[in-house]
Amino acid sequence: MVNIGIMSFAHMHAYSYAACFNALPGVKLAGIWDDDKKRGQAAAKQFNTTYTGNLTQFLSGKMEGVCICSENVKHRSMVEEAAAAGKWILCEKPLSPSLEDAKAMVKACKQAKVGLGAAFPCRFAPTLMAVRDRIRAGEFGEIYAASCTNHGQSPGGWFADDVLAGGGATMDHTVHVVDLMRWIFDREFTKVHCESGNQLHKKTLKTDDLGSLNLEMEGGMQVSHLASWSRPKSYPTWGDVTMEFIGSKGVLYVDAFGQKVNVYSDRAARSEWASYGDNPDLGLVHDFIESIRERRSPCASGEDGVAATAVTVAAYKSIKAGKAVRI
Fold first, then answer.
1. CB 234 within 8 A of CB 214
2. pTM of the model
């Protein structure tokens, strides 16, 4: 039996991860810690586990690993404490809004000889796994360019607080696409030019809700990416991840979350997209559990998290400078 704890339910993905831990055989969600007592106790009740308010006591418990889903700026301190306690760690993305902190997290885990994974579940979407296989097999020849999106609804709360999140939609929705491109092509990004703005939520947000990025990868591949909180509350789902690749032998388009049916719901009083089939979060969590059993790094490592952070940090530098920035 692999015992897992969750540190903070500040990020909504924690609820999906908790359900996945409970669904896996040979895995036990052994406890929850949260600096918000009310939220932590409610989550513990929902997922049939215990809440511990003292972090030192929580980390001294019988757990092989922890999943950290706190506000972005708190990731470093939590990772360092969990590493010092000898726990394998899965940390929500972005690994950190600070490149210095992200590197320090990787260093702390290496010194403690524990694994550190970045929560990039899109790697486990079957559609994107198929894209990776087909591109690597040369089916579309040399890839010259890619056009990507990661749009979503505005999460509000701490996500829109630059102090706690480190940025807005550009921070929240760039790292997924950056990680996917690095994972598919095994190349690094070299340059980024980014423009951002608050286009839709001027009355409720003080941070960016739109980022338009033009990037370059090793070998000269051009990548465009739109990151936004542009979906209205009435939209059928939270958002999307789409990618279109232009190659010498053809064009490939993928909607990462295309496994859905249209539902016209009287309960929700709007149309909804009900997902069916594969659950990328379950794939992410399963890989994390196997990394504990095999004493290896998770598929999306801490170093992968650092690389995604580096691109995002450079994007915000580009916004301030008004020009392209080397990564």
1. no
2. 0.95
